[in-house]
Specification:
single chain; 93 residues; alpha+beta; name from scop; 2 strands; 14% strand; cell projection; flagellum; T3SS_substrate_exporter; cilium; T3SS_substrate_exporter_C
Length: 93
């Protein structure tokens, strides 16, 4: 018999304010119910969500209010590019 394990949902929320902070910063993170709440709040506020399990795993190792390290800039830049593209398509920019 094959065992199937369901992985708990995990989420990390970032903020970036160019000119105010040097790098994107972790503002929320969690697993299970906390992750579901983070995702629900994002949806309620029309904040785009991108699923990237490997990036969430790396970002999940950081503390809340911690800026992302330089080695993750490229991966996070791709997330922000995705968000800006969605916002532009929706006419938000």
């Amino acid at each position: 018999m094959k065992e199937i394990r369901l992985k708990r949902k995990e989420a990390v929320a970032l903020t970036y304010k160019p000119g105010l902070i040097d790098a994107p910063t972790i503002v929320a993170k969690g697993k299970g119910k906390v992750a579901e709440n983070i995702l629900a709040k994002a949806e309620e506020n029309n904040i785009p969500i991108q699923e990237d399990a490997s990036l969430v795993e790396l970002l999940g190792q950081l503390d809340i209010n911690q800026s992302i390290p330089e080695e993750l800039y490229q991966a996070v830049a791709e997330v922000f590019a995705f968000v800006y593209k969605l916002d532009k398509e929706k006419g938000n920019y």
